[in-house]
From TrEMBL:
Coiled coil: none annotated. This is Universal stress protein. Residues 3-135 form the UspA domain. It comes from Candidatus Lucifugimonas marina. Pfam families: Usp.
Amino acid sequence: MPFNRVIAVVADDPSDINTVSRAADIVRDDRGHLYVIYVIKVQRSLPLDAEIEEQIARGEQVLHRSERLARLPRQDIDSQLLQARDIGPAVVHEAVVRDADAIVIGTSYPTDYGSFSLGSDIPYILEHAPCDVILWREHSSAARPVARTSRNGRG
């Protein structure tokens, strides 16, 4: 299946390198177009279009770094800084608007209270995306090996 329009979601996370690289490889193979997006999560106490200069500067830096990482011709890549209350719905909306064939999103080894957790944005994207979703989860030394048990339930 050709992937002509792919969205790579970056978040200033170590996984961004592999997210952008994989997304660029996908569109390069099919001579497609890569859309790199960075979503600033705006607190509910602020207007949605608030000028959050520090976060905007950080997002622009991440997008420029991602464009360099992709190593695609300029006409094959677009980057966009978005502001939204929640990241998941913003990504899904962009996928609909751009008629995306795939979303590539990455994460480090996320934890919540010491346990592995994908939070709320990635599950939202996995559930609501109108296209294929490729999830890249970075390896972590914090990942615990799964205990194997014998058939009788003892180790």
